[in-house]
Amino acid sequence: MSAQNIIFLNLFFYLLGFLILFGFKSYILSQFAGWLSLVINVLGVLFSLSLIMNVTSERGIEIPWINLGDTVVSFDILLNDQTTFMYFLVQIIAFFVQLFSTKYLAKDPAISRYYAYLNLFILSMLGVIIAGNLMQLYFFWELVGFCSYLLIGFWYEKSAPANASLKAFLINRIGDAGLLIGIFLVFYLFKTFNFMELRDRFAGVSTGVFHLNTFGSWSAGQLLNAAGILMFCGAVAKSAQFPLQVWLPDAMEGPTPASALIHAATMVAAGVFLLARVSPILSHDAGFVIAIVGSFTSILAAYSAIFQYDIKKVLAYSTISQLGFMIAGIGVGAVGASLFHLTTHAFFKAGLFLSAGAVIHHLHHQQDMRKMGNLQDEMEVVFYGYAICAASLAGIPLFSGFLSKDALLISAYAYAEAHHFSYYLIIPVLLLISSVMTAYYIMRQFVMVFLNRQGNPIEETYHDILSGLEGVKKSFHDLLTADDDAQGDEKIINFLQKLGVFEISVLAMSLASLWFVFSASPFTFSDVWFIKIFGQTESHAAWIPYTVLGVSLASMIASFFITQNEIRNFYVNSDTEKSDSWLRKIGLNHFYLDYFYFNYIRPVFTGKLNTTEPEPAASFKKGLPGVVHYADSTYIDGVTKILARGLMFISGISEKAERLLIDNFVNGVSEYARKSGHYGRKMQGGQIQFYLVLMIALVICILILKTFLF
Predict the structure, then answer these.
(1) For 535, how many CA atoms within 13 A lie in the half-sphere containing its CB?
(2) What residues does 63 pair with on adjacent strands?
(3) Of 65-79, 235-249, 262-276, 532-546, where does mean pLDDT reach its minimum?
(4) I want to staple 344 with a disulfide (CB 3.0 to 4.6 A). Which of 82, 89, 400, 603 is the partner?
């Protein structure tokens, strides 16, 4: 089967799943909605594996779609390593998220609608991945945003999810407007939307084969900078970067499994994928702006994660921070390292979200971490799965996050080194501080959610690891020393019966977060197969990973003791928030960005709709609509009234002129004609004598005229 047939068949199954699950809402279908969606997802995973084996080199597929005169609108598919790995990544994570959802949302009456939305989302995300041109990508990009809106507001009968979905939708429209302008600017410069042609034509610029367009006083280089930054606006919104990151924490109002898929592993990573697609045409200046925004966002979000109490909001800010890492990597030119971290982050962050979902489900939808704890024995499998994913996020050796995060840090350092440090050094410094903060907040969450409330961190960790190893050793020993095959089978069955869909999903994500999935060596990323495929900036700064590791471990130990004290203070004084320091309040409220937008930016567009102040103050307090209304009613309406009065005056003069001159003239002519006809009629009386006299008179007149005039 050809690659394009594989893709179209795969997309068709997801479209069919959406139509069935959304269109036929019955009790019987709702009981099997999850399993129907899982079957489609399994087929998708098989299709993705087939696609990986089918694609051995980069190529594009152009399928003519619409003919508009000389212009042909085509459906383009770009097949390369970026496409195939993301195509598989989205579907394998979606499978375990959907498996997890079968239990998490088992009692939800709208479960069919939930799975319908997931199928539409996967279809949309795959459309973004395979898109071979910018306009096609933009179409699916918007569809992905729409699916996010549907899933965040899945429980739309509650005000919080409904408001969060609207907030996410509107903020993403801001970034998407910039993206669309950037796409058209790229077309103006390169005369194509196709990714492969863009790359070739950009390469031709340096050799003089291709020349970019200019516009007025804007040079081609300036237009290219503008195009790169405008397209980056789309990534700023979709990947929740400063200053449009405020929608993602509120997006946690949606179902937790959907958050694991969309707002941790796939959709928010679409911004990184977009930048990776257009990275060949990104200018140096645009790359620097991207790197600064990414690193700055990373440290802002990491700081806020330190002070959150909601288990999902910690992970939300963590996601923003890690996306900042990836964005910064794209900016410094480390596309391979960014995509590698995107992959590892997709697995360990999905595992963390699914673990959080299992905890929330176990505690009857309690999300305040201060009211948790002591869950390591009650949820043993989830505990170990969470620990692996958390260690990967913290960048601990033996886990994938250590390899990918350090690849980005080394790339950022190499970028600054290549530019002789200067202000470029701020990028690796910010990322380094963010890494230390990451280790701090993930240990804080680990302690609050799972560990016992008292204990020494070293003893706790040693005891937990020892207990886990003893448990695994005992399980394997029982299986290997069974008296016969039947007894061995029974022990295997008993072991598997302890695993539910929660545990299986979390374990799958945690196993994918171990180092051996990506590299033979757990201590260096030079052996990572992913890096060998996508490339990596060479650097000899081997001291960076271990320096970061040492500081991060110290941060984790400090976090343990500080968190224990934080928990004690919570139980002693439940009103600790009232006495919090300003540093904690800033972090808890994410630097009051929401407050600033709501109180200073929102009034610009909405204002105070009900005000008793006189004009024009009242109009100006109604925001931009009030200003526009005031300008319209005062100036535009005033000019319109003056023009109307002038026209009325002219029309009055015209009416009098027409009545006195034209009408009188026309009436006079008609009256003259009437009277002439009247007298002429009298002359035609039929009397021969009158006719004879008239003829004699006319002859006499003619003779007189001839005599005197001629």
Answers:
(1) 9
(2) 75
(3) 532-546
(4) 400
- C-alpha span between 206 and 68 (Å, rounded): 33
Report which of 143, 154, 126 is spatially closest to residue 40, judged by C-alpha positions: 126
**Looking at the DSSP assignment, which residues form a beta bridge with residue 482?**
none
* Closest by CA position to 104, among listed 495, 365, 352, 346: 365
Give 360-379 pLDDT, tens digit per residue.
998 988 899 988 888 888 88
Query: How many angstroms separate the Cα of 15 from the Cα of each of 1, 35, 59, 78, 229?
Result: 20, 16, 26, 21, 34
The residue whose two tokens read 């928010």 is 268
In sequence order, what are the beta bridge partners of 59?
A: 79
Q: Identify residue 393 by its one-letter amino acid code.
A: L
Distance between CA atoms of residues 109 and 30, nearest Å: 8
What digits encode the pLDDT tens for the residues 223-261? 999 999 999 999 999 999 999 999 999 999 889 888 888
More confident position, 17 or 577: 17
- The H or E element that residue 368 is part of is none
Q: Do 534 and 408 touch, CB atoms closer than 8 A?
A: no
Residue pLDDT, tens place only, 90-113: 999 999 999 999 988 888 888 899
- The per-residue pLDDT for range 492-516, each reduced to its tens digit, is 665 566 678 888 999 999 999 998 8
Q: Tell me the H-state helices in 55-158.
A: 81-104, 111-130, 134-152
Quote the CA–CA distance of 173 and 169 in Å, as a whole number: 6
The pLDDT value recorded for residue 109 is 85
Cα–Cα distance list, 679 to 66, 239, 676 (Å): 78, 97, 5
Query: Roughly how many angstroms between the first and final C-alpha of the chain, as a whole number?
Result: 112
* Crossing angle of helices 426-449 and 284-306, rounded to 10°: 30
pLDDT-derived band at 70 (thresholds 50, 70, 90) equals low
The CA distance from 646 to 278, in Å, is: 57
- Asked if residue 111 lies in contact with residue 105, where contact means CB atoms within 8 angstroms, the answer is yes
**Which of 31-40, 447-456, 537-546: highest mean pLDDT?**
31-40
Whether residue 545 is preceded by a cis peptide bond, meaning omega within 30 degrees of 0, is no
Of 371, 588, 366, which is closest to residue 579 (Cα–Cα)?
588
Q: What is the 3-state secondary structure (H, E, C) of 158-195?
A: CHHHHHHHHHHHHHHHHHHHHHHHHHHHHHHHHCCCEH
Measured CA to CA, the distance from residue 406 to residue 523 in angstroms comes to 10
Question: What are the C-alpha distances in Å from 578 to residues 480, 581, 587, 589, 596?
Answer: 58, 9, 14, 13, 21
State whether residue 72 is helix, strand or coil.
strand
Q: Enumerate the β-bridge partners of residue 62.
A: 76
Lowest mean pLDDT among 31-40, 133-142, 313-322, 487-496: 487-496
| Percent of residues, the chain, with pLDDT higher than 70 | 86
- Smallest CA-to-CA distance from 482 within 495, 500, 470, 464 is with 495
Q: Which of 443-452, 467-476, 567-576 has the lowest mean pLDDT?
A: 467-476
